């Protein structure tokens, strides 16, 4: 069997469904072999970065890896940003690249570079396939590493001369094993910590979503009444309408939700990664009692030094604690948490009927987005000022229905991510929200969305500058450097790519237009002039928060 055919057979054995990417001369044998596969769908993208973001979103939605593909040299370097984003946000993904002949890797040669070394800082494993018979072992290792906690990206490089060699090897059988459980002694210690606490609170992170532990968390919270604060990446782990939902933490300044953390005598962190919200922002003195539940021991940090760690499957650990706690009586003082939820809910509802003309406030745009998206609808956020508003004002009924990049935080994520979401979940409504800066970074993927007839809507918040940078510079220095730019005629841009196009300047019309756009056949673009004067207003308020109690 030709090595490239063996490579594809191994991917099929692993259950790989999608590969996103751009072919090239040095991966031609692989592409021809992939074209014969009846199990793997190849999605031709307009840029390798878009392909990497698509693979990331597939991994975050399914827990299984997809592939992103580039050729050698610039094809590989174009993948890098999206790979770094997916890896830091714990998305399982396979990064595949062609390479020149193994006979010229040792010398100066056309487009030759050390891609393996380049990808090592942003992957869990990066390697060259040096012999065709190694392919089954390396594919098995790559997929297993990508899926294992904590998941991430792996990179494999296939030289063009090795791709066309023959091999007698066969794909390895896929074997999967259950996640380990925390030890009983640790569970008993955790039980005592919770039972003796007076004001416990939960901070739920990415791992709750990743390990499908939301149902277990909801049962635990319903039994105990302990409030749940989510990071940006854990939205929906508890229903936004649940009285125990304390919404989201993660802004750089103290918000209402932080009052519940300040008042607590025990913080239970679930699947929390320090990149989601640095502990020096919520535990600056390092004096909070912390119970850490996660798949791996905690990162060492002066402000995050847990009193106890439960290492293993989060859902199983929560279920075990729920059973233990159901046998005893306890009475927590959660008045501060109830007040936080009351006041935060009032803030979320304050602009629901806003009728501003000519410019639209972020709070209103997100209220309407939530109103038109069904509970299982998918929202994908790009990176920019809008991300901070989405984090604070958009909340979810179901887990994994709001995808926000929050580790590497790369702009350009939302449009290609929405394409992957639409392909993977054609039965769901998909809405991406981008700033005008982030949207234009991967605007070429509008053609990809049209070609694959993706039913998705992108809402662009137009302020004609890099709004988040302006916001942060103004907060810090009192003014900002030149950050403005011009934009295309959005409606003509939509028409040229075969999209439906809408521009909304009246707040009262936004919900109706969004609803129309999300029910149109094919991709739709909705552009609104955003009122980022609200950024500094929010900054001033967050810098002077008074806790409800």
TrEMBL record:
Where the record annotates domain Thiamine pyrophosphate enzyme central, the positions are: 187-321
Q: Name one GO molecular function term.
A: thiamine pyrophosphate binding
Q: Which Pfam families match?
A: TPP_enzyme_C, TPP_enzyme_M, TPP_enzyme_N
Its name, as the record gives it, is Acetolactate synthase
Where do the Thiamine pyrophosphate enzyme N-terminal TPP-binding domain residues begin and end? 1-118
KW Membrane (keyword) present: no
Q: Which family does it belong to?
A: Belongs to the TPP enzyme family.
**Which keywords accompany this UniProt record?**
Thiamine pyrophosphate
According to its UniProt entry, this protein's organism is: Endozoicomonas numazuensis
